[in-house]
Structure formats: structure tokens, C-alpha cells
Amino acid sequence: MTWDDLEDSGLMNGWSAITVNVTVNSPEAVLELRGLHTSCGCELYLGHIFLEQRLDENG
Amino acid sequence: MIGSHYPLYLLPSIFICAGHALSRVSGSEALNLSRYMLAVTSLMILVLSPISPMSRYVNDGGQLLWYPRPFAVTEETRSTHEMLNLVPGDSAVLTQNHIFPHVSGRLNAYVIPISDFSPGQAELIEGYLDGLIDKCEYVLLDLREIDEWTSYTHGRVASNGSFGIQAFTDSVVLFMRGAETSPDTAKGLEHRVYHACREMHIGVGVAVPDSASEVGEVALSPRGSAQGFLVFGPYVYMTEGVYDVSFCLQVSQPWEGYIGTFEVTCDQGRQLLTKRDLYGYEFPSPEWREMRLLLSLDGPKELVEFRLRTKGAANVRIDRIEVNRTDLRPGATASTITFNYVDLLVDEGELTDDCLLRHLPVEDEVFWYGPYHGLPLGDYNATFYLKTIPSGTSDNGTLVTLDACYGEGRHIVGAAT
Q1: pTM for the model
Q2: Burial label, B39 (beta-carbon count in 10 A; 0-12, 13-18, 19+)
Q3: Is the bond preceding B371 in cis, omega lying within 30 degrees of 0?
């Protein structure tokens, strides 16, 4: 994510919501969601992660 | 309630004894004895009888001498009678103690034990109940009056492939051998609304008037109140399927941090089905908002509870919870869920006072990882709620790398850089 990706998305105080597509293709998979802070130019805050199943148009 | 009628057996003896005593005296002695009896009886009625207004204050509705709840024929009572009528008179039926009087005239009616047993005896009771389930064609359970053996019976019948749900309400379920549970079984229960100040219980909050609510009042957890459940309940029965759950919320205090968590549980709150963490940054203005989540149930669940846990950091109002069974999501196999500081692991970051995870500007360092959550096969969206504060150092490059993986990071199943 760059500064442009983290533009204000209608949340309070400059918070942004970034969505990542995830495909689970193994029944034994135990999901891990990681964040790697790659910049020394900012403090980074995480609130929560929202996980929902992506359904096709019929669903 | 079986048990409350036991004192009635004493009444004939008391009347016979009173008549016998009066027959043995005469004249003024009989008159005095009659007066004493009348005075003592009147006093007892005044103090103890439920029909006396004074007795309510003396007993304070205690259960020692009173029926535990005011008698009322509710919609649930009527529905339970309708379910009883669905059971043919010659069919074997298993039910609980408080329903049993309605079927006790039948030749093949059986009751679930109500006592506690030692571990050794419990094994025998399990075998006894398994035998009853095997011989019964119907099992009728009121899951708001749940105890150990009702819960055991429900678990065994629900997982027994030969039974299906013939009918159910918010709290009562009728299983029938050979029946197939279909979406039509839930007819009339596809759309349920639970108002915070009507069908739910209020914990750490208070009921306050609010014209935005169709019932005229909502539950409020004011800023500074204790942490706990603002509302909880209504402990309902839900069958396998996919549900849209929405809850109407208002947050009127500027606060960007953690506000609380909306949880869906079953088994008397012991099993968490899913949760939705709530943060102040999702509420930039003090409007009523409908928060949504998808609830996918892989089997029938007893005593389903919806509850809103609040931290006391902001003024939070909740009006109602709506549950809609939906057949429009055939591919849905997983419930919506959120993860936050409770679920994630952090090596170098810190937890702020408002329950946000914070990481100082250090390059190429893992901020968080986890929560190691099992999921059914399928495609998902993982939305990360992030905020950055420039530290003054110029940096136009990548700020953060997000990825989803399993197998200790060996298999990347989603990433954004």
C-alpha cells in the first residue's frame, strides 16, 4: 500500500479500508493475515480486519 | 410448573380436621374457635395469597410460596399447543417435565429426567435417554427451559439422521422421525425483529425514549458506563441455513477507537458463532446506522443469543436486531467475522488506550500476524482498517504489505503491496 492507496475512504480521522481478495483452496488451511510495515516515514495503526465470503452475482 | 401443586394435597386434611375439631366443642367455645380460625385464615390470605395486593409486598414475588411467574398465555404457549396437536395420540413421544402433563394420558409418552446425577449415574441416564430416543417417533423440546438432559437430548436428536424438524418457534421445537427439515419448516420465522427494549435484556445500559425507534425507546450505554453487555438475548431456536443479521446502532460521541463487539452465540452463550467488532472510525457522524453480517449455520442451534458488548468509551444506542433467513445466498458457507487486537498477535507494536494496534516507523518489520482461523473453501474479502500518521521523514514508497497465507506463510492466498 502506498500513500495514494490510503486516501480517505469516508471513515473518521483519515482511516482507510483496504480490501484484499483471498482464495482458500485447501480444506486444512488455517488462515493467517499479516501486515508488514515497510516504511520508516509513518506510524501505522490497525483497528480491525473484516472478513466476508465473496459470493457470485447470484449469491 | 410441576411441584407448585403439592401443597394442594394438604387442603382436604386441613378441612376434615377443622370440621372434626368444631364438632367436639359447643357453645361459646365453638364460637371462639371459629373466630380464631377465621382470623388466622384471613391473616394468612392477606399475607400469602397471590390474590391479596398486600402479599406481593410481603413476599416480594418470592418463589417459596408463589407460582414463579405470572400465568400468561403467550404466542409461544399457543404454538406449543399447536405442536402438541401435531403428535398423533398413538405415537411415542419424548418431552420435558413441564410439557409432559399434556401428553401423560398417552400410552407411549416419556419424560426427560430433571435431576442431577453423579458421573457414574450420568452414563446410565445417557443410555436410558438414547433408548427412549430410539423408541420415540416425536421429541418435543422447550429450549428456553433447558437443563443438562434437555440439552443432551437435543444434541442427540439433532445429530440423529433419522429425525427432522417438523415445526419450531423461537423456543420450542418438534422433531419427527422420518421428517425432512426444509426451508418451509421455518415459515413465519423467515423474518424476526428483536427490539432492544422489548424482546432483549438490557445489561449495563438503560432504556431511554427515542423517536427513531418504532417502539419509542432504545437501549443506551452512556460514555463512562461500565464495560459489559448492553443488550443480550433473546435465546431463540434457529435451524440450518444462511441469515442476514442487521443491528441498528447510533454512536454519538466522537471516538475513533474500540467501541464494542456484536456477538452471536449459542449453547447459553458458551459457543461463539461469529462476531463483529465495532470501532468509532466507522461512525463519522451521529446517525443511526444499520450494521450487517452474514450468519451461516451448519445445523440447528439452541438458545441463540445476540449480544452487544460495549466498552463504555462512547454513547452507544441500539434499537433493534433483525434476522432474515435468506435463500438467495446458495454459496454462503462461512459467517462474516472480524478480528482485532484480541485475535491478532503483535511482536513490535503496542496497544493504545483506545484499543488500536500501533506500530512505530520502523522499516520492514512484521506488525501483526494471526488469527489462524479455519475457513471453508471459497473466495473471501479481507478488509483491513488502517491509519497512517507521517513521522516527518520523507517516504514516497510502499507503506505496508498485506497478505493472507496458511502453512506458516508458505502458501500465499491473497496479497496487496
Answers
A1: 0.80
A2: exposed
A3: yes
Q: What is the mean pLDDT of residues A1-25?
A: 78
Looking at residue B347, its pLDDT comes to: 81
The grid cell for B391 is: 513521522
Q: In this structure, are residues B61 and B105 in contact, taking their beta carbons and an 8 Å threshold?
A: no
- Phi/psi class of residue B208: alpha, beta or left (left: φ > 0; alpha: ψ in -120 to 50)? beta
Half-sphere exposure of B219 (CA within 13 A, CB side): 28
Is a pLDDT exceeding 60 seen at residue A59? no
* CB contact B283 to A (< 8 Å): yes
Cα B362 to Cα B309, B349, B366, B370, B386, distances in angstroms: 34, 10, 10, 20, 16
Whether A25 and B399 lie within 8 Å, measured CB to CB: no
pLDDT score, position B52 = 77
Facing residues of B350 across strands? B358
Q: How far apart are CA B122 and CA B118, in angstroms?
A: 6
Average pLDDT, rounded, for chain B:
88
Q: Tell me which amino acid residue A30 is.
A: V
Residue B136's pLDDT is what? 97
Look at residue B70 in the predicted model and tell me its pLDDT. 56
Report d(CA B205, CA B78) in Å as an integer.
33
The DSSP symbol for B225 reads P
Which pLDDT belongs to residue B280? 95
Decide: helix, strand or coil at residue B10.
Answer: helix
How close, in Å, is residue B224 to chain A by CA atoms?
A: 21
CB < 8 Å from B in window 1-59 of A: 1-3, 5-6, 10-27, 29-56, 58-59
pLDDT at B3: 45
Question: Looking at chain B from residue 356 to 385, which residues have their Cβ under 8 Å from any Cβ of chain A?
Answer: 356-385
Amino acid found at B228: G
Residue of B nearest to A48 (CA): B340
Identify the bridge partners of residue A32 per DSSP, sorted by sequence position: B371, B405
| ipTM for this model | 0.91
**Secondary structure letter of residue B90 according to DSSP:** T
Low-confidence ranges of chain B (pLDDT < 50): 1-3
Closest to B174 (Cα-Cα) out of B138, B145, B143: B138
